[in-house]
Amino acid sequence: SRHDKWLCMMYPRLKLLKQLLSDDGAIFISIDDNEQHYLRDICEEIFGTRNFLAELIWKKKYTGGKGTKTFVDYHEYILAYAANISQIGEISMDRPESEKAKFTQEDEYIEERGKYYTRPLKSNLDPRPTLVYPIELPDGTSVTTQWICAKSTYEELLRDGRIEFKNPRSSKYPVYKKFYEKDAGGKVKIPSILEVTSNNDAKEELKSIFNIKSTRDLTFKTPKPIKLVDIFVRNFTNKNSLVLDAFAGSGTTAHAVINLNAEDGGNRKFILIEMEDYAETITAERVRRVGGNFDFYEVGEPLFVDGDINPAVDAEQVRAYVWAMETSTPYVKPDADDCAAFMGVNKDTAYYFHEGALDYEFLATMRTRADSYIIFAETCAVGEEFLNKHKIYFKKIPRDIIKIWADEI
Fold first, then answer.
1. What is the CA radius of gyration of the chain?
2. Degrees (nearest 5) of the Cα angle 73, 78, 83?
3. Are the beta carbons of 85 and 53 closer than 8 angstroms?
């Protein structure tokens, strides 16, 4: 089915993305109703139930739906998982502009705490006897009811100047708690429903970048808005983080990283991956136009076809891959006076990639001295005793290269 094909495409990619996450990293996946519940299942398997952070709802539009027979589709989902939830600190975001308007009152703490607003200290929760106690008012009278905090907490708030009394004759509730705009560094918890921006805003951003007048002329129809991606880049990275977007689309993630670096002087880096034919004309071009500095690469032919090395792949590319996977270092074609199969030396081990048999005739062509040797070849015609004596390790082509690839995935 279509869902099967989609899952078969996503599963290995998510397995690899998990390996690429840092210990304190997190992944955010935007998804619609079509695949949301399927995606949740495979994420639970790959990342683990304990590493689930949230299933966020993003309100992507505010109008439309005239042609629908049932419900109006106003939202999408964002699934969030941690690589290791124990490494994730407290999660918060800058206070939205819409919330800042309620801070209108001032007191003697204005410089250190900013302005404040108040809420009644009275509780509307189910009865809890431990929250019922008398509070003495400035006029000498007292009020006994159920409050939102224990008496010891109230007394601490009172000492800290966070309680405000109002005339009981003019106010329904005489005791209020103050909430200051600079508390928690001006941060608030990220809500599970995000209404920061819309798809229409994203299209307007793309039109402005590419100097397009009409939405109908956009060749990329489903961009994500910068403000949405900024929530995650801003609150889940530090100034030196590396941000990877494996389904880059129009390049919004890079745009958000560039904007935040310009704002706070950060040195965040980004990697974008896009398989569609607009990767250079839209994704990369957008990053160029917003001032991004980056390198652009096109992925070559697949390394394997039906369990064999792809004959369309140059042997030097195969060597580069094998070298990188074996040594975790970049491959540089050696200048050493050795045979064509020689790849280099790493940690006193010499590496060879020989498209033929590992036999005594081939061994006679090797000139590099090392403590040990790893030789990739199609077959081995040398006895095990000789190999062990000279610390030569045979790895079969393509079986052991495929094993490296499989372990990576």
1. 31
2. 165
3. yes
Q: How far is the CA of 262 from the CAs of 252, 255, 268, in angstroms?
A: 15, 11, 10
**Structure tokens given for 168:** 């009981």
pLDDT at residue 403, as a whole number: 61
| pTM for the predicted model, two decimal places | 0.76
Residue (of 348, 361, 363) closest to 394 by Cα position: 363
Q: Which amino acid is at 292?
A: G
In three-state secondary structure terms, 282 is helix
Contact in structure between 366 and 344 (CB atoms under 8 Å)? no
| Mean of per-residue pLDDT scores for the chain | 92
Out of 17-31, 52-66, 258-272, 344-358, pick the least confident.
52-66
Backbone angles phi and psi of 274, in degrees to 5? -145, 130
Q: CA–CA separation, 319 vs 352, rounded Å?
A: 9
pLDDT-derived band at 42 (thresholds 50, 70, 90) equals very high
Distance CA 237, CA 87 (A): 13
Contacts of 384 (CB under 8 A, 6+ apart): none
Instruction: Give the ranges where 63-122 is alpha helix by DSSP (H).
Output: 97-100, 110-113
**Could you tell me the pLDDT band of residue 90, with boundaries at 50, 70 and 90?**
confident
pLDDT band at 409; cut points 50, 70, 90: very low
Looking at residue 49, the DSSP 8-state letter turns out to be G
Closest CA to 261 of 295, 288, 230, 225: 230
| Rounded CA separation 274/279 (Å) | 6
- Range scoring the smallest mean pLDDT among 212-226, 281-295, 391-405: 391-405
Question: Residue 92 in contact with residue 155, Cβ under 8 Å?
Answer: no
- What pLDDT shows up at residue 404? 54
Residue pair 223/206 in contact by the 8 Å Cβ criterion: yes
Unique residue bearing structure tokens 């949301």: 36
Q: pLDDT tens digit string along 286-344?
A: 999 999 899 999 888 888 787 778 888 888 888 898 998 899 899 998 987 899 999 99
How remote is the C-alpha of 128 from its chain's centroid? 42
The Cα-based distances of 52 to 14, 25, 107, 233 in angstroms read: 14, 12, 42, 18
Closest to 72 measured CA to CA, from 82, 59, 85, 81:
59
Q: How far is it, in rounded angstroms, from Cα 325 to Cα 93?
A: 39
Distance from C-alpha of 286 to C-alpha of 296, rounded to nearest angstrom: 13
> Is 404:325 a contact under the CB 8 Å cutoff?
yes
